[in-house]
Design a protein that fits this description.
The chain has five helices and seven strands; from the N terminus they run E-H-E-H-E-H-E-E-E-H-E-H. The chain has 167 residues and is of the alpha/beta class. The chain has a single domain, classed as SPOUT methyltransferase, trefoil knot domain (Alpha/beta knot), CATH 3.40.1280.10. Helix 1 runs parallel beside helix 5. The mean pLDDT is 89.
Length: 167
């Protein structure tokens, strides 16, 4: 069997990076996979504490493979410090409570995509404070409660990049 490796497809990466924000992530391999996605797409990764693991966790490092030097990583001790560090950013909050479909948003370079922890999602206080910016990814809610965090982040990042490259 012959394998074809596909890479370096013609694509224009935005001059201003997109941002993935993980609020209190708990599962190290998810964060490692998201870090690898961010390295591959030139997306800045914000980790908002407290984290449910140490950044030296072997499972997280393994999931990110040898791409950690390519990850534009920003740490924030808590959500308030994240907000203070990014006061003018356009933020979209991803939740199963989201009534706007992720494909209905017109994404721009510099947008921030905020995701909560794997077991509880974003805190109600954050969602309640941002009602016009809560976004969802459609799924069969009668059978499945949520998507894997790394999968959800990938869906949103590639939709934003697709839109930005159409202009």
């Amino acid at each position: 069997m012959t394998h074809t490796r596909i890479n370096h497809l013609p694509f224009q990466w935005p001059a201003t990076p997109l941002h993935v924000v993980l609020v209190t992530p708990e599962i190290p391999p998810n964060t490692g996979n998201i870090a690898r996605l961010c390295a591959a797409t030139g997306t800045r990764l914000h980790l908002v504490g407290p984290l449910g693991f140490h950044l030296t966790d072997k499972a997280m490092l393994r999931a990110g493979l040898d791409y950690w030097d390519e990850v534009d990583l920003v740490r924030h001790p808590g959500y308030e410090s994240f907000e203070n560090a990014t006061p003018h950013a356009t933020r979209y909050y991803f939740s199963t409570r989201g009534e706007r479909n992720y494909t209905d948003i017109t994404y721009q370079p510099g947008d921030m995509f905020v995701f909560g922890c794997e077991t509880a999602g974003l805190p109600d206080a954050i969602l309640d404070a941002n009602p016009g910016h809560i976004v969802g990814i459609p799924m069969r809610g009668d059978r499945v409660r949520s998507l894997n965090l790394a999968n959800a982040v990938a869906i949103v990042i590639y939709e934003a990049l697709r839109q930005i490259n159409r202009r």
